Structures are given as structure tokens and as C-alpha cells.
């Protein structure tokens, strides 16, 4: 009995391999749990009740109201500038009610009243020029051409997005890599146990022959 126990004692290399395997298993489970609670669940909630549609521009306008943004010009240099509010109103193929277009969910959360937030420059005039350029783009280049937009009737029934922050590829990677880490850890543990078992059996067979 003592010999059997001694035979199954792991060497230092095998012990390190087992620890690595268990560490990867724990990391995979914790990553999956953390991403699921902090990121994946809110992303799925944002996508719930949503879908894609064809959008057509109805009106492009600048409001008289200006909004503040924060610019950075160095490690210890930060300030506040202002930009005009651009609104792009569209009609979707799912509804006849006009909707306000946004770049993505992040821009919608930052400023739900406007359709575009320019890169914040120190000069207000530069911010105004960027917004005017975007206004001409929607009026002249897009015009009445239909394009794909995204909506969520449960969360934001009066808003549509030009693109999604949490698309299928991001959600796939969010789920895939913790699972891969977990499976690699399981594989290392199983292979180490199998290799040790085979080594013990081979040693036992060798002793029987002698």
C-alpha cells in the first residue's frame, strides 16, 4: 500500500503542471463570471428587444444649443470647449415615426440629444467645422439613400444607432476566451494525470518482468 502511494506521488515538474492547470481553470471560471456580470449581461440587455432596419434621412439640422466637451493637450493640460448640436432625423422601415440617429450606444449615453459628438478640440471653431462637415456628409453624400441602422424598442424607442458597440464578434470573444482558458487548464490536468498513470503502470509491468 505504501509503495502504491509512493508510486503516485507527483514529481516537482508534474506538480507545477497540475498547479498551472488548476490556475487556468480558476482564471477561466472567474473571467467568465466577471465578464458575465459586469459586461456581457448589460450588453445582452442592450441588444434585447432590438434589431436592424433600413433608415432614410428626413432632416439634418444644427440646434442653437452648444454642449461642453473636455480636451487634453498633455499630461497636465486639460480644458473645456464647446461644440454645436447636430441632429439627424431618420425614418425607419419598422416605424413611420421619425427617430433621432446616433453614432453608437456610447455616444447615445454621452449626449442623447445630439447625433454626433466631434473629437474635442481646444478651439470651438474647429469643433464647429467638424460638425458642419458631418452635416454636409449626411445632406449631400447620404441624402435619401437608405442605410442600415439599429434600434431597441424597449430601451430607446425614439432613437436609432448607426452601429452597435456590442456586436456579435465582441460578444463571441467575451465568451470564447474564458472558455478556452478553462478547457486548456482541464486538458493540462487530465494529460498530467494520464501521463502519471501510464508511467506507474509501465513501471509496474517492468518490475513484473524482472
TrEMBL record:
MF GO annotations: calcium-activated potassium channel activity; potassium channel regulator activity
Keywords assigned: Glycoprotein, Ion channel, Ion transport, Membrane, Transmembrane, Transmembrane helix, Transport
TM helices/strands, residue ranges: 20-42, 175-199
Recorded topology in the membrane: Multi-pass membrane protein
GO BP of this protein: detection of calcium ion
Subcellular location: Membrane
Main location: membrane
GO cellular component, one term: voltage-gated potassium channel complex
Full protein name: KCMB4 protein
The species this protein was found in: Rhipidura dahli
Amino acid at each position: 500500500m505504501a509503495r502504491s502511494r509512493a508510486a503516485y506521488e507527483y514529481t516537482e515538474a508534474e506538480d507545477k503542471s497540475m498547479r498551472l492547470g488548476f490556475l487556468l481553470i480558476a482564471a477561466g471560471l472567474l473571467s467568465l463570471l466577471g465578464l458575465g456580470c459586469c459586461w456581457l449581461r448589460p450588453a445582452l440587455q442592450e441588444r434585447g428587444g432590438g434589431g436592424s432596419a433600413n433608415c432614410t434621412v428626413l432632416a439634418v439640422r444644427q440646434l442653437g444649443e452648444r454642449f461642453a466637451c473636455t480636451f487634453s493637450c498633455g499630461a497636465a493640460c486639460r480644458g473645456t470647449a464647446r461644440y454645436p448640436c447636430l441632429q439627424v432625423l431618420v425614418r425607419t422601415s419598422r416605424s413611420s415615426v421619425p427617430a433621432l440617429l446616433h453614432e453608437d450606444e456610447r455616444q447615445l449615453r454621452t449626449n442623447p440629444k445630439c447625433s454626433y459628438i466631434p473629437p474635442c478640440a481646444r478651439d470651438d471653431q474647429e469643433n464647429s467645422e467638424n460638425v458642419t462637415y458631418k452635416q454636409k456628409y449626411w445632406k449631400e453624400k447620404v441624402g435619401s439613400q437608405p442605410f442600415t441602422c439599429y434600434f431597441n424598442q424597449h430601451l430607446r424607442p425614439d432613437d436609432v444607432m448607426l452601429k452597435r458597440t456590442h456586436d456579435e464578434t465582441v460578444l463571441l470573444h467575451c465568451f470564447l476566451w474564458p472558455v478556452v482558458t478553462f478547457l486548456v487548464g482541464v486538458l493540462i490536468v487530465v494529460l498530467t494525470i494520464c501521463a502519471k498513470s501510464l508511467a506507474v503502470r509501465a513501471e509496474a509491468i517492468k518490475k513484473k518482468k524482472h
